């Protein structure tokens, strides 16, 4: 992969050739399983690909590779390692057709149709013309807010997992894992195997009360085996796992956190250094413009950024998106039977959601909803019931902060019972960008 | 005070002007329904800087009106209506070339002639007020009596403090006339009866009244940064470049021209604008324009280098053909009053103009002579016929 | 010996290839709140989405600690206030 990073097709002056349009690359945003699978499929079909990854190497959240010299204490399920090794090897074979830009953040599409990128190393925003785009930027974690979730010491469970994969080391000090979803078990087991078993895992849902959904899950195969292995680790390390239990609030005390926990109708306090929270996943779609199906430059979503189907399905979904782009561009696309596998993954996710379905205790007036702007539930409750999207943004200052609504958006959708309408036209930059880097943008470059 | 307790006014457009008119009509006892295709502050009001600035106005009636309008903010602040939402702050008119310095000096003389306090600022004083200001700034004037208000906060307050019925998602397709007199408005399939109609719909007024030859959209692209300070303006004044004055004085008319202002918001963020793109009514922003704005802003105020852009957005100013707002009774449609065409000056002029339009609807004379804004002035020409 | 960067004035060692976020957390530095105290800051999502771990690199500007590879000698701090008024 390091060789690929050096691959540089940028010198070719494409704009001056007659073949400029057909030689333009297909953009793939995101170097996780969906993005890499899409890039490989496109390149194997003979197309040029521009693959953009925000980090300094490929992998995404699920296949995050350890930093050089990090201890390899725990390496994730063998299935994931095999999948990634296979993608990496296919990538090597078509490396000459893939221009990989790491440490580069996709900023969106501007009003003139430019695809914009923030090259973090060069400190410069650049634009590149592309034939089509596949955006595979994964998921963001949902958070059911409670008082104090915004404090230092509280981290998302997925974030903690990424760090663990990178560093090979768990955070020091007592850890509590709470919220809802299969990731809680996975992270807790991985922490345990890395040497710091959590004090407790608190799952809000009560899967034992949903026998039908559980029965559907029993047919899942690989994911089920993975879950069983996590449960075995947690049992071995004697990590207490509670269902029907949730965090009501957290406060800072000295070096750590005091966590108020509800189990049934009983409340208790836990002391910990870290609280890892997670309440499911949401496609990371904020601000991604999806043009009409017939648009000149098609933009497709792939992977968990399109629909939460998990890491295995993300590879298939990347291939599906690549096939769609290939047929749009008049290439023969492999008609591999992907839909059946995707639909199986969907059924699994639906059964999982049903098994864990639960309602979080409503936020108190003081509960932070928007960490970026410091806006609380009381600020949201003060808005008129029929407030327009614009009023929620301007008067409520929700969705106006640096995360651009990626965290408060799903919270407000849950509280309102409907999704927040998105800005129209979709706003770029998709992510905050340095004033200096954007000032460095110049229109006369088509290659950078 | 309510002289027509049964009067029902339909106000079309819940921007700052419509909200102010609705507020003052209701305060005088009228029954008011405020209609908006989207919701309060959905148009230019929610997509503008918050300059309540006399310093930026073209000499002549606009400069005089802005002085009245700013004083009106002051009195509304003092009487509690807008308490906490209007802040006094200086505007700095800054020049980076000799030519610009001449323009700033000329504008300063015009402001002084209109009765405005204008202070010379030498570079050391200026650097003390705005640390980090660019090396290129060679001349500056301070206009100390200007102010700042956020259009959407003003709109919200005006509506909170009144009994106006606000109807969101209520696009008005037609003003219903009977025997030359407005009798209501049509919202989808619904007829809303009204005794009087105020059209304060910005560029939306074009379709309702057939003002396509009189009103033009002028798009402005802007940038908001992250916080440079916590909960207060990051610098001690509004930076207005000579390029902005050149545009406002009509010296430059070019869609690629950047009239630079750096507006320190009370949140600690900066709002940086902007372009002036005639006949553009879309709200898209583009990297070429935004980066040009930022390059100019960095030249004027290099500490912005450490900031990040949180979002870009565009607002659509509604400008009239002769550059003056259109406020007053429609010359032919009885019971219809117009208040639009405020271009980029709506936040400054809005509350005052809304209050003035309310007085006109109630049959009172506005506090100052607004005859130069009367829609009548266009009626000899092709439209408003 | 591992290379190091500075958090305010404190040296923080890191392994080559590690992010700023990983190194800060290993050093026990969890509170990344910006100056001025409107909001709190900390490493949270680790994928560049939540913007809660944004820190300032002296001479460069603000970056997400979770996305930024640590470099030897870099000087980091909470996001600063600038253009302070004299009042």
Description:
Chain A has 3 domains: 2-140 and 283-330, FAD/NAD(P)-binding domain (3-Layer(bba) Sandwich); 143-279, FAD/NAD(P)-binding domain (3-Layer(bba) Sandwich), CATH 3.50.50; 368-415, no CATH class. Chain A contains 14 helices and 21 strands. Chain A has helices at 2-6, 20-23, 33-44, 78-93, 157-167, 182-193, 211-217, 222-236, 311-328, 338-356, 377-381, 389-394, 408-416, 435-439, and strands spanning 26-29, 49-52, 98-101, 104-109, 115-119, 124-127, 132-135, 139-141, 154-156, 175-180, 200-203, 241-243, 245-253, 256-263, 266-272, 274-279, 281-283, 299-301, 368-370, 375-376, 433-434. Residues 1-20 of chain A have low confidence and may be disordered. Chain B has helices at residues 16-27, 61-78, 98-113, 123-129, 151-160, 205-209, 242-248, 287-300, 346-361, and strands at residues 8-12, 31-35, 51-52, 87-88, 91-95, 119-120, 139-143, 147-148, 165-167, 172-178, 181-187, 190-193, 196-199, 215-225, 238-241, 258-264, 270-275, 277-278, 308-320, 326-329, 336-340, 342-343. Helices cover 27% and strands 28% of the residues of chain B. The two termini of chain B are 36 Å apart. Chain B is α+β, with helices and mostly antiparallel strands and 385 residues long. Chain B has 9 helices and 22 strands. Chain C has one domain (4-77): 2Fe-2S iron-sulphur cluster binding domain, sarcosine oxidase, alpha subunit, N-terminal domain (Ubiquitin-like (UB roll), Roll), CATH 3.10.20. Helix content of chain C is 8%, strand content 22%. In chain C, strand 3 (54-57) and strand 4 (61-64) form a beta hairpin. Residues 83-87 of chain C have low confidence and may be disordered. Classes of the chains: A alpha/beta (448), B alpha+beta (385), C mainly beta (87). Chains A and C meet through strand 9 and helix 5 of A and helix 1 and strand 4 of C. Strand 21 of chain A pairs antiparallel with strand 19 of chain B, so a sheet runs across the interface.
């Amino acid at each position: 992969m390091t060789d690929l990073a050096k691959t540089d097709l940028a010198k070719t002056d494409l704009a001056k050739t007659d073949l400029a349009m057909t030689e333009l690359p297909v953009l793939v945003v995101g170097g996780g399983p969906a993005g890499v699978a899409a890039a490989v499929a496109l390149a194997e079909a003979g197309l040029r690909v521009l693959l953009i990854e925000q980090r300094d190497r490929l992998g995404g959240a699920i296949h995050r590779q350890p930093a050089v010299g990090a201890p390899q204490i725990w390496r994730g399920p063998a299935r994931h390692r095999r999948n990634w090794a296979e993608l990496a090897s296919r990538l090597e074979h078509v490396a000459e057709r893939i221009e990989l830009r790491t440490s580069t953040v996709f900023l969106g599409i501007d009003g003139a149709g430019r695809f914009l990128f923030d090259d973090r190393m060069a400190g410069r925003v650049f634009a590149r013309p592309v034939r089509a785009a596949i955006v595979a930027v994964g998921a963001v974690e949902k958070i059911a807010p409670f008082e104090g979730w915004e404090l230092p010491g509280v981290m998302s469970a997925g974030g903690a997992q990424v760090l663990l994969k990178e560093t090979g080391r768990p955070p020091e000090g007592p850890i509590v894992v709470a919220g809802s979803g299969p990731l809680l078990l996975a992270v807790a087991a991985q922490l345990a195997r890395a040497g710091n078993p959590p004090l407790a895992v608190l799952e809000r849902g009560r899967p034992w009360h949903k026998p039908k959904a559980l029965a559907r899950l029993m047919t899942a195969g690989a994911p089920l085996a993975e879950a069983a292995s996590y449960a075995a680790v947690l049992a071995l390390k004697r990590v207490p796992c509670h269902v029907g239990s949730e965090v009501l609030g957290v406060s800072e005390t000295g070096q750590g956190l005091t966590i108020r926990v509800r189990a049934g109708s009983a409340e208790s306090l836990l002391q910990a250094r870290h609280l890892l929270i997670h309440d499911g996943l949401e496609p990371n779609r904020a601000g991604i413009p999806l043009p009409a199906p017939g648009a000149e430059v098609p933009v497709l979503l792939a992977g968990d950024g399109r629909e939460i189907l998990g890491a295995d399905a993300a590879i298939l979904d990347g291939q599906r998106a690549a096939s769609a782009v290939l047929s749009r561009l008049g290439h023969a696309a492999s008609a591999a039977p992907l839909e059946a596998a995707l639909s199986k993954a969907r059924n699994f996710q639906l059964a999982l959601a049903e098994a864990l379905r639960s309602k979080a205790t409503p936020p108190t007036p003081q509960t932070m909803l928007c960490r970026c702007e410091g806006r609380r539930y009381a600020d949201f409750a003060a808005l008129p019931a029929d407030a327009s999207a614009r009023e929620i943004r301007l008067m409520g200052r929700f969705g106006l902060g640096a995360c651009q609504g990626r965290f408060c958006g799903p919270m407000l959708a849950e509280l309102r019972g409907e999704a927040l309408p998105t800005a129209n036209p979709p706003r770029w930059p998709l992510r905050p960008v340095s004033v200096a880097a954007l000032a460095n943008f110049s229109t006369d470059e088509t290659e950078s | 005070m309510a002289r027509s307790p049964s009067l029902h006014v339909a106000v079309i457009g819940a921007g700052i002007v419509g909200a102010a008119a609705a507020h003052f009509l209701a305060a005088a006892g009228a029954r008011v329904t405020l209609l908006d295709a989207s919701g309060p502050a959905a148009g230019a009001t929610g997509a503008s800087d918050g300059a309540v600035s006399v310093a930026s106005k073209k000499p002549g009636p606009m400069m005089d009106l802005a002085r009245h309008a700013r004083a009106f903010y002051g009195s509304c602040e003092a009487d509690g209506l807008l308490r906490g939402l209007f802040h006094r702050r200086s505007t700095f008119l800054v020049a980076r070339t000799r030519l610009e310095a001449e323009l700033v000096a000329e504008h300063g003389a015009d402001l002084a002639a209109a009765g405005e306090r204008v202070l010379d600022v030498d570079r050391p004083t200026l650097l003390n007020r705005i640390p980090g200001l660019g090396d290129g700034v060679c001349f500056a004037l301070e206009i100390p009596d200007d102010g700042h208000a956020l259009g959407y906060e003003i709109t919200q307050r005006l509506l909170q403090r009144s009994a106006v019925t606000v109807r969101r998602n209520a696009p008005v397709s037609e003003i219903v006339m009977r025997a030359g007199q407005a009798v209501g408005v049509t919202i989808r399939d619904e007829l809303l009866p009204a005794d009087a109609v105020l059209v304060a719909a910005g560029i939306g007024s074009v379709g309702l009244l057939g003002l396509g030859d009189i009103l033009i959209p002028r798009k402005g692209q802007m940038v908001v940064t992250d916080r440079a300070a916590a909960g207060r303006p990051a610098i001690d004044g509004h930076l207005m470049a000579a390029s902005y004055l050149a545009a406002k004085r009509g010296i430059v008319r070019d869609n690629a021209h950047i009239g630079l202002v750096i507006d320190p918001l009370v949140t600690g963020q900066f709002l940086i604008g902007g372009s002036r793109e005639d006949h553009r009514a879309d709200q898209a922003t583009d990297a070429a324009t935004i980066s040009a704005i930022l390059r100019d802003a960095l030249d004027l105020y290099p500490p912005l280098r450490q900031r990040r852009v949180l979002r870009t957005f565009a607002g659509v100013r509604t400008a009239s053909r002769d550059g003056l707002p259109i406020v007053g009774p429609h010359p032919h449609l009885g019971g219809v009053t117009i208040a639009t065409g405020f271009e980029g000056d709506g936040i400054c002029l809005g509350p005052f103009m809304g209050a003035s339009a309310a007085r006109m609807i109630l049959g009172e004379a506005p506090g100052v002579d607004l005859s130069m804004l009367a829609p009548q002035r266009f009626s000899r020409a092709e439209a408003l016929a | 010996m591992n290379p190091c960067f500075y958090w305010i004035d404190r040296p923080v060692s890191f392994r080559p290839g590690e992010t700023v976020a990983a190194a800060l957390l290993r050093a026990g530095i969890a509170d990344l709140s910006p100056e001025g105290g409107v909001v709190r800051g900390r490493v949270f999502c680790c994928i560049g989405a939540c913007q809660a771990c944004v820190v300032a690199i002296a001479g460069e500007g603000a970056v997400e600690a979770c996305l930024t590879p640590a470099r030897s000698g870099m000087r980091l701090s909470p996001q600063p206030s600038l253009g302070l008024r004299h009042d």
